[in-house]
Write a structure and sequence with these properties.
single chain; alpha+beta; seven-stranded mixed β-sheet; Alpha-Beta Plaits; six-stranded antiparallel β-sheet; disordered N terminus
């Protein structure tokens, strides 16, 4: 009887652990302080735009109407679910807009920014301009492309805008960015940032 109870408890622990591991990452209004993009493993992208909203004549309802109108026009051309409105809230004198994109291409086109998502395998066989030196996320040491792009299971995200970037995985190497945590960096608009991560 004791063995049965022990096995039952272990099975529930395994189920609970697996459920926690597969928890979907999302951007929350309470967590963001800067413009942020989250690139998920299924290829979808979530973004948060943070803008000062401290004038008396600013109207949140009018802003929401304008944004949903722009999304509607974009979706008429690019597919109904290319962009999905998430939320628009006020936080500490800022308007925080969260949008969901079916892929990085729609994020890039709608926001008129330069961004690319690819695999290390595809990057090495493409015409992409990649850096000659990377920074290791584990110890801050410099690494050559042969080392940084060696693992065929890694993905590469290239961003050319100032934003916080969250990847659905673990950052392994990067250039032109500040590492904030194992899956979060801050990029700059002066040079493109290249992020090599393990999904």
């Amino acid at each position: 009887m004791q063995k049965f109870l022990l096995y039952t408890v272990l099975v529930f622990c395994l189920i609970f652990t697996a459920g926690c591991k597969n928890k979907e990452r999302i951007i929350s209004v309470d967590e963001v302080k800067n413009n942020t993009i989250l690139v998920k493993n299924d290829g979808t992208v979530q973004s948060a735009t943070v803008e000062t909203f401290d004038k008396e004549y600013y109207n949140l309802d009018e802003l929401k109407t304008f944004i949903t109108d722009q999304i509607g026009k974009y979706n008429q051309t690019n597919g109904q679910d290319a962009i999905v409105f998430g939320s628009l809230d006020l936080k500490d004198g800022n308007a925080v807009l969260i949008l969901n994109y079916s892929n990085l291409e729609h994020y890039k086109t709608f926001n008129k920014v330069d961004a690319t998502l690819t695999t290390t395998v595809d990057a090495k066989s493409s015409n992409l301009e990649l850096p000659d030196v990377y920074v290791s996320a584990s110890d801050g040491a410099y690494a050559s492309p042969d080392v940084a792009l060696k693992n065929d299971k890694y993905k590469i995200l290239i961003v050319n805008e100032k934003t916080d970037v969250i990847v659905d995985g673990t950052v392994k190497y990067f250039t032109n960015a500040a590492l904030l945590s194992k899956s979060n960096l801050q990029t700059n608009s002066e040079e493109k940032s290249v992020i090599v991560y393990k999904p």
